[in-house]
Amino acid sequence: MNERALRVAGLGLVAAAAGWAAFRMAAGPAVPYGDGQPVGRPAHLGLAAGGGSASTDVDPAQPLPKIPDRLPSFTLGDRAGNPTSIDTWRDKSLIINFWATWCAPCRREIPMLQSLNGEWSGRDVQVVGIAVDHRPDVVTYADKLKIGYPVLIGEQDALTVAGELGFASPVFPFTVFTDRRGDVVTLFVGELHRAQADLILSVVQELNDNRLPLAQARRNIADGLHGLAPRGSG
Amino acid sequence: MKRLIRAALCSALILGLPAALEAKPWWLRGAQSNEGDFLPPDVAFRVGSRIDGNVVRVQWGIADGYYLYRDKMKIEAESPDLTVGPPSFPKGTMKNDPNLGLQEIFTQQIEGAVAFNRSDYGAHPVQIRVTYQGCAEAGLCYPPITKVLFPGSATPLPHHQALTYPWEGDAIIAGGLAFLLAGLTLRKGRRLETPMS
Question: CATH classification of B40-155 is 2.40.50.140, yes or no?
Fold first, then answer.
């Protein structure tokens, strides 16, 4: 082996080490010590004060969740406890916002959603909140904020709805936009800001006016969101 | 020199592939959605535990841009005949949230500890139950997570890493492949040099 081959081997090792370091950094911070045995039980999602729960672990052998093309039909209790179907707002474009009272970014979004609901209601756009939380906490908070749009409330049943939308282990907030035909146009994960909502709604309107096919609408939204400034911190 | 650069790029690409796949949130793969960059909960918040004398120490590794709420953290007994005292945590950072008020949060890495007492004479492995809840600064919260942990002995346990990093095995193979590919790329067109030639 000549000197050049040694140099090459050295460089390969350095590249491998750099790649390895990058991988470890991307994988997040290391925990310096661990458990002696495999964790024998999957993690559980519990609602704020130890309420309903659902599995959170992602089994790599299971197919990845898929957001449906059509909004599934579901029924949850409203603020008064009356079962209310999402089909109540059939033929409208929906902004379905999943939230919880313990979630600060969810709370921050609500005034913006109130404004959206007021401004777009004349154009057949309806905001519906879905609180995945304990009913008394939600009712108290919704009354305090005088939330003017419908709020449906659920625990395990609302988690099931989230699962049908591709979120078996949801994070909050997330917002589903549909067109008036009931097609799921996009699902926005994290805190929604006004500029993002306006952009998505303008594309939904184009869809409703048959000026765009769905696939193109989704591409326009993705490109438009990409072009907007980074989301605010909080 | 060009060959060297090419080899280095090959290695970095092959090795970087698992990390690139992991970087995309699982819930966005194959779906129409915003290209957010939020981490899955078990990547945003890593947890490990160990026994240190009569104390169980639980450590959380928190990714940059993420935080855990102090008042949502619990360490409780899980296995039979195990009792634990109240958990102690270091002082966190105060975060003033207009919607939730003043909240004590943890970032980066923190360790909680509980004194434990077992009355089963070692019949059961020590199991604890930890609960934690946190958010991303960019505007996303994870529901409370509860996990059952089996704290190991005081010495770090290397095989835990395989559980924490499911891509580790792939990364080792990818590293080997990268090295092999680099060698093949550089040897292409060259004769084997032997003392006889």
Answer: no
